[in-house]
Amino acid sequence: MALSKVFTARYYSRNTGFFLLVFYFFFGIVPGNQLLSYHYALIMGFLTSTGMLLITLLIWLLYNLKCMAYVQKTLSARENTFLYATLGILEGPRKWRTLYWLHFTLYAPVLVYSIAAILIAVKIHAYLPAIIILVFNIIMTIMPMRSYDHKIKHPGTTPFFSDWVQWLNRRFRKPLWMFYIYELLNGNVKALALTKFAGALVLLMACSFIGDQPDKRVVLVGLLLNLLAHGVLIFNHRRFDDLYLSMLPQLPVPLWKRYMQTGTTYLLIMLPEFILLLFKTGPADLLLYITFGLSILMLLRSLLYFPQLDQDKYFRWVFLVIVAGLFLSLAYYYWYAVVLFQLTAFVIFYFRYYRYEAPLQEVQ
């Protein structure tokens, strides 16, 4: 009971916003009389498509890593040092049962959905996806046990993931344009995960409306909503540069190269979405989706080189850019939109990059 209050109860209370968002996308946007058919169609989608199944397993893996990180962080907290005396005295099967139940209570939302998926898979005789989902979740619930046991026996050590990151940092020299990606993966992983989860659901819903002949307009509408969700990450990019890379303009790097490096950063950030579109729509129009998405993100980033553009004004511009992209897409002016947004982004970048000065409250 005490462990449940320390781990399980606090986990769900601290992640209330995350679970409310998940609940909204799974239940809030669908009328009550269509909930069963909606989830049945969603489960059938990843049971009958290898690409969607892989994406689903990846999302579940990310959630499992989130649970593991929470337990490790809780064990490392100074106010929870008593846990080492409580868990350290456990031995044999009782220890493994306790650790397993601890992780099981955190990973339970995925297990509930997985059980429903397995039952449907058996009903439609999709035995291979059922076995894959079963084995995957067994691994996901057993895998953390060893890391938790190691942390309890060696309180002063860092988790395996942190050790791996430190090992990678010693052997791989990150270019400056990758610093923000590294920050997202380490210091702001919750915002990144929420954005990717919401964006993937939007794209999957958009792709579910297309038939054998994909309508580019439908896909672009889903992509625009996905880019809207990424607007927060773009705004935080300026804040990160202001705080940690304010001396970057002093480096002898050509302006065109700086622009290309920024675009490469956003290409890597959007890579999961573009891989999803490749699986769902094929390679024929992938170049359009990539250039369309990057042109809008580059325009949003270039607008932030106007220092008087605070968060409220920025999101007004985000809304205007998304609406402009929506109208141009519905009018079949896809490539005109790409050229327009990209040229506007580069012109603003060209004239504003070296003139930009970070607000004092950002650099202090």
UniProtKB/TrEMBL annotation:
Keywords (A to Z) from UniProt: Membrane, Transmembrane, Transmembrane helix
Ranges that cross the membrane: 12-32, 38-63, 99-120, 126-145, 217-238, 259-280, 286-306, 318-351
Protein name: Uncharacterized protein
Organism encoding this protein: Chitinophaga oryziterrae
